[in-house]
Amino acid sequence: MAGKANRARSEQKEATREQILVAATKLLARQGYAALRVAAVAKEAGVSLGGQLHHFPSKESLVIAVLERLSARALDLAARDAAHDTPGEDILQVIAESAHRFYATPEFLIYLDIFLSVRRHTLVGDTAITLLTSQRAATEALWLPHLTARGIGAEQTILIIRALWGLARGLAISSVREVDRHGGNQATVNFVIEGLRRGSCLGELLKAAT
Description:
Layout: H1 2-31, H2 38-45, H3 49-55, H4 59-82, H5 91-103, H6 106-117, H7 123-148, H8 154-174, H9 184-198, H10 202-209
């Protein structure tokens, strides 16, 4: 009986923690980091302020937990994309589309707002940088086998992945307040991919691999 009760308490504790993180994520998306107040998060989550502070004693600890949650979700999304490799697909377009899906999410805008709002060498700022760095390395590791299996060298593969993800990030930031009605972003992606093919032996390697 004691074991069952402990398990129930543990599940309830985890459920409450998740409620708080979901509420904090919603408010960060709606108001931004600077306007976030822990009392507002508790109200949004439907928990007492004391209950919230039990899980997250400060605004900084709450935001760090949100960042960690968003980072894990982003990697899950990239991992799902990388798990599918259909023969005959344009792998560069597949990678570019995966990057676009990540940077088009509201979660990225939350990440960006926090990253720009806090100073470096603070707990939140340093955590954001650490997570971004580890996230980039993990993403590169996911896509690396797809290109090396096609005969592309590891060093060149890393540069290709960084170019495509960096492009997607830049396009997402530059068009955050506008709708790409005329397909300009995709045209830019196509232009860069064609440049990558022409500027190296990628074209022949990718053609031979399909």
